[in-house]
Design brief:
CATH topology of the largest domain: UDP-N-acetylmuramoyl-L-alanine:D-glutamate ligase
Strand content: 15-25%
Bound molecules: zinc ion
Structural class: alpha/beta
Oligomer: single chain
Number of helices: 14
CATH class of the largest domain: Alpha Beta
Strand order of the largest sheet: 3-5-2-6-7-8-11-12-13
Number of domains: 2
Shape: globular
Helix content: 25-40%
């Protein structure tokens, strides 16, 4: 068996090396090959450090990057900065994680690190952690996403729930998403369940404002009653029949001040680079996970106040007198979140929307009809681009927006030139396979 493990690792490492020599990214491929040869290949790897994993529909990459920063600020075993191994670029399937392990493990498959901080696709949590002892699992939210691959949201939640039935490690849950909070009772014997949330913010509504999923009690089927919705189906809810909801938070972000980008946790004041409500939920999750490891608050202050993920997650681009804030949106909730930021901004602005329909996006782009374009605050012009530039233009037109102000530029370089054609405030939304090409096109235009 040992020899077989050795051969697997040696073969995998050789693939990584060849790909690197060829100037290619070792993202998924070596893991995919090993998986094809043996579906249980992940068991060749071992690690004896704490493993912290992040899953959920939206915000995984950002939250993982923040946790990586936090844990990377600690001291490691040898007194040097802690060695954190993480898949920051979002290769979050078992094949991507396996490929990454190949780059860091020794020939026996052992991964030497102080912490592993992993972003994991919701459906791959049970697959990956069958082989590793997971110390902490952070669950952010469950929304509809890329239906072609994942199937219904409920199927996904049940998959995670099944895994949690025997899981005894730390479980960090969003108290305000019923789809997540319900998982707190998956294993009644697990005493390590911790909830986080964010206090009601000024944009919260009393009615559901955007498409939401978790409207019925997962335990008894009764319609949930909400005090308020923060965004989509995330908010303060309770089941009038069985009492599900209103979990006592272990961490709560409160006293939000949008003008000074500040908030409090446990009586201490923190600042953030962005005050988008979904971002604050991510920060609350980060704080809750950090609290479990007694991390010094100074580190949290620094990471919250200074760190930005970029990589198309609320990334800023500047050109002459213009500023563009670009954000990834893989689903209606993600797009609605960026539109909320845009509408919170009282200045005149323009929007760039890039929509692709490649396999990884899901071929079906009907999700754009669940984006709430009805409130478009001070948007002078919309530029659409991507392989489905016309679909998104039609969608925006059908919301009642003046078609004369919509400019369709399927080519991304043309779209980048168009959005910067006049000076001002800009917002950008791009879906999954569109985000990196959009960043590249913006950078090309700016560096001209
Ligand atoms: Zn109930």
């Amino acid at each position: 068996m040992k020899i077989l493990n050795f051969l697997t690792v040696a073969f995998g490492k050789a693939m990584v090396k060849v790909l690197k020599l060829a100037g290619r990214d070792a993202g998924n491929f070596p893991g995919l090959v090993l998986w094809t040869l043996n579906h249980n290949y992940l068991k060749v790897f071992s690690a004896d450090c704490p493993i912290i994993a992040v899953t959920g529909t939206n915000g995984k990459t950002s939250t993982t990057n923040f946790l990586n920063r936090v844990f990377g600020s600690l001291k490691g075993k040898d007194g040097k900065p802690a060695k954190v191994i993480t898949n920051m670029q979002g290769n979050n399937l078992d094949t991507g994680i396996g490929s990454m392990f190949l780059q860091y493990c020794d020939m026996s498959g052992h991964i030497d690190a102080d912490y592993l901080v992993l972003e994991v696709d919701e459906s791959h949590v049970p697959v990956i952690f069958r082989h590793f002892k997971l110390d902490t699992l952070v669950i952010l939210n469950f929304f509809r996403d890329q239906l072609d691959r994942n199937g219904e949201v409920e199927t996904l939640i049940l998959k995670v729930q099944k895994f949690l039935k025997t899981y005894k490690g730390n479980l960090v849950l969003n108290a305000d998403d019923p789809n997540v909070a319900r998982l707190g009772t998956a294993n009644p014997k697990n005493k390590n369940v911790y909830y986080y949330n964010v206090e009601k913010y000024e944009g919260a509504t009393s009615e559901l404002y955007e498409a939401g999923e978790g409207r019925f009690c997962p335990h008894c089927g009764e319609a949930l009653v909400y005090d308020y919705y923060q965004y989509s189906h995330v908010g303060r809810f309770c089941c009038p029949k069985c009492g599900f909801g209103k979990a006592e938070p272990f961490v709560q972000i409160k006293d939000l001040d949008f003008d000074s980008s500040a908030f409090s946790i446990e009586g201490e004041r923190y600042t953030a680079k962005h005050m988008g409500i979904y971002h604050l939920y991510n920060l609350s999750a980060v704080y809750a996970a950090a609290k479990l490891y007694d991390i010094d608050h100074e580190i949290i202050h620094k990471v919250f106040g200074e760190f930005e993920v970029n990589n198309g997650r609320l990334e800023r681009f500047e050109h002459k007198g213009s500023q563009l804030l670009l954000n990834l949106a893989k689903n209606p909730v993600g797009a609605n979140m960026t539109l909320r930021l845009l509408n919170q901004d009282k200045r005149r602005k323009e929007l760039l929307f890039v929509l692709n329909d490649n396999i990884a996006d899901g071929k079906d782009v009907s999700w754009i009809w669940d984006i709430n374009f009805s409130i478009f605050n001070g948007v002078d012009r919309v530029i659409t681009s991507g392989t489905r530039a016309y679909d998104i233009a039609i969608r925006i037109k059908c919301s009642g927006y003046d078609p004369e102000r919509i400019v369709v530029k399927p080519d991304l370089d043309d779209a980048a030139a168009e959005i910067f054609a006049n000076e001002g405030i800009k917002y950008g939304i791009a879906n999954y396979t569109a985000i990196q090409p959009t960043r590249a096109a913006l950078k090309r235009f700016i560096s001209k």
